[in-house]
Amino acid sequence: MKTNYKLPKDLNESLKNMEEAIIPSLLDSNRRFTIELKFEGLKYNKIGITIYKILARKNNVFITFADQGAAALAQRDYPDIKDKIFTFRSFNESNNIKNNDSVMISMLPQPFDFDSFEKMSDNYQGIHYSLNPKFEDLNVGIGSVIRERRKTFVKKWNNIYFLQPINKGALMHIFPNNWLLFKEENKKYFLKKEFESKPDNETIFVNL
Amino acid sequence: MKRSFYKLFVTFIVIATSPFLIRYLLINKKIRLLNNIYFNSPAIITTEKNCNNYDALLDKTLDSSFSVSIIKNGSIISSHNEDKLKVPASNQKLFSTAYVLNKYKITSNLRTNLIKARNNDYYLVGEGDPDLSYSDIYKLLSYIKYNKNINVNIVEINTKYYWPKGWTKTDKIFDYGAPITTLAIESNSNNIFNLNKVIENYLKDKYPSSNIKINNIDLNKFFYLRSTKEIYSIYSNPIVSLITLANSESHNFTAESLFKNASKTWNKNIYDELKKWLRIKGLPTSKTNFADASGLSRENKVTTRLIALFLDKMTYSKDFNTYQSSLSVLGVRGTLANRLKDSNLSGKFFGKTGTLSNVFALSGYLYKDKEPIIISIIQNSENIDKNKAFYLLSEIYKLEKCN
Predict the structure, then answer these.
(1) Which of the listed residues B213, B236, B259 is the one where a domain comes to its end?
(2) C-beta atoms of B338 and A73 within 8 A
(3) Are residues B161 and B190 in the same domain?
(4) Is B309 a domain residue?
(5) Domain range for residue B17?
(6) Maximum C-alpha span of chain A
(7) Residue B35 belongs to a domain
(8) How far apart, in whole angstroms, are the C-alpha atoms of residue B222 and residue B245?
């Protein structure tokens, strides 16, 4: 795929870029993917539904939420697909967990939900996308065994779309292309550098 | 002699230690049945404990316009003006949605019915479904059969009960202060006066040769006639969705409508039932005032002590997981979605905001360990400082153990 060296000018363009990343990911050997849009004012359920629509053209898709309240509200907002909406726990307890040909989108799993999310994800062999997940929480006083387990779990996940404005720049990734670091000058963004994997904070700082 | 001495000794030990044992079992939530008994009983096991580091934080951060209560592991560990009566704004929904949850199954629905009395006499009766739409009304009307004379009676509450006491004229103009009625199209967010015309036009279009009459009947005077028949019902989203809508999105109409159904008070604007429900749970309600279910009324007066003790008691309810999941989550969803998004606290505070002019409230469950810290903060002031409430939340999270 030809690398897109331009930052999206609005949310619609960003969602198009996300779609460009989702399509090839369906053919990838990996089956755990993260999608991360890290800017203010987003309605995540709407983005989740956009991902659902992209995937549902050719797949049986489920959406899972951390808890009953979040799932119930989504079922109210999207009555057409309410049978496809579950909590992490209820999906794990349903027969759909064995549906290896299906695709799942998990909405915003947080460290608080890690136990139920990990169980569900480990039991599910279909293609699994997570929108803006936060798996690790280094500030919580958890033991080293659990920390290691979480690290192992996190390594199973590959990012396919990432967009975040950062101080004096922006970071973007559209699978299968490289990660792109943009520098902001006079309110315009210029491509600064490409990376094969996500650059850490120090690398970003040095390059901006 | 020796045996009876032992029996006496064991009985004495059991009696002497049982309050401590029960408290231990409750605090650690060991026995579900015991938790449920405690939740429904008038007992309060919460104790007071001195935590100088928490007290110092509150003293340093807050002025007299704030009230704060903090509970951890069954003890009020710190407070600030906690018995001062305050306007809670939407923190009022913490009480009313719990009341509703206690009265309904989470899968229950509100219904909007078309009832037929005689050949050509129909009644439209609702329960304040917040998602009721014109297409739902058309669906109900589609079950009306042709007759030369068709009478449709719209059963609705008296206009004097449209708004609870203490809602301002300005509130009533906006969507968030829409009237609370039983047949509300899209929660009355547009216009409540169109329904008669809409029904008449639909039926005239469908049956041009019929003589169509649309009447309004006061719910108070409405009674089911003999040999009536329910023709069709529209079911609302389940109670769990509606409670989450009320709490997470702070939807006033839904909070009011749910409470009116649960307390059977469509024909009056009285909220004593809510206060009574809290009182019989042993919670400190004296001098408090309950004027609505959503918190829009400026006449609501509660204390942070009441809110915190109530949130603590809710952790013993069989419905606690559902209740907590209906709240906003800091940095993740609902009215707290855009607060402290990339902080350590993101995803760890399940709570409810409350905002009115001169009011900001923030109460809920903060998870640092397995057991939550329960926090209630209310500021009533002409100089509201929302950031201070969130700053306090972050600082409480940072604090080490009570000392």
Answers:
(1) B236
(2) no
(3) yes
(4) yes
(5) 2-30
(6) 55
(7) no
(8) 30
Based on the domain organization, do B244 and B385 belong to the same domain? yes
Q: Give the chain B residue whose CA is nearest to the CA of A135.
A: B347
- List the pLDDT tens digit at each of the 403 positions of chain B: 667 777 777 766 666 667 778 887 887 787 888 888 999 999 888 888 989 999 999 999 999 999 999 999 999 999 999 999 999 999 999 999 999 999 999 999 999 999 998 778 999 999 999 999 999 999 999 999 999 999 999 999 999 999 999 999 999 989 999 999 999 999 998 766 688 999 999 999 999 999 999 999 988 877 666 678 899 999 999 999 999 999 999 999 999 999 999 999 999 889 999 999 999 999 999 999 999 999 999 999 999 999 999 999 999 999 999 999 999 999 999 999 989 887 889 899 999 999 999 999 999 999 988 889 999 999 999 999 999 999 999 999 999 788 8
B273 & B334 share domain: yes
C-beta separation of B316 from B113 below 8 A = no
* B278, B306: one domain: yes
Q: Is B371 on the interface with A (CB under 8 A)?
A: no
Does one domain contain both B188 and B254? no
For residue A56, the distance in angstroms to the closest alpha carbon of chain B comes to 24
> CA separation (Å) from B288 to A110, B9, B83, B214, B276?
37, 46, 10, 44, 11
Helix (H) or strand (E) holding A86: strand A85-87
Total domains in the fold of chain B: 3
Binary contact (B327, A69; C-beta < 8 A): yes
CB within 8 Å: B326 and A69: yes
Q: How far is B212 from A194, CA to CA, in rounded Å?
A: 72
Query: Concatenated DSSP letters for B42-103?
Result: S----EE---HHHHHHHHHH--TTEEEEEEETTEEEEEESTTS-B--GGGHHHHHHHHHHHH
H-run or E-run covering A53 = helix A44-56
Of all residues in chain A, the one with the smallest CA distance to B349 is A112
Chain B residues closer than 8 Å to A137 by CB: 344
Q: B117 with B205, same domain?
A: yes
Peptide bond into A199 cis (omega under 30): no
Kindly report the CATH number assigned to the domain that includes residue B209: 3.50.80
- DSSP assignment of B156-220: E--GGGSS-TT--HHHHHSGGG----SS-GGGGTS-TT-HHHHHHHHHHHH-TTSEEEEEEEEGG
Among A44, A70, A110, whose Cβ lies nearest the Cβ of B325? Answer: A70
Distance (Å) from the alpha carbon of A45 to chain B's nearest alpha carbon: 9
User: Which of B209, B236, B263 lies at the terminal end of a domain, its last residue?
Assistant: B236
For the record, the structure tokens of B313 come out as 């008691």
Q: How far is CA B342 from the centre of its chain?
A: 29
Letter string b/e over residues A92-122, b meaning 16 or more CB atoms within 10 A of that residue's CB: beeebbeeeebbbbbbbbbbbbbebbbebbe
CATH code of the domain covering residue B70: 3.40.710.10
What does the block give as tokens for B81?
A: 């003006």
Q: What is the pLDDT of residue B327?
A: 97
Q: Are residues B245 and B384 in the same domain?
A: yes
Tell whether B102 and B245 lie within a shared domain: yes
* Residue from A76, A113, A201 to probe the interface with B (highest B Cβ count within 10 Å): A76
Please say whether the beta carbons of A18 and A161 come within 8 A: yes
Residue entry with tokens 């509970």 = B71
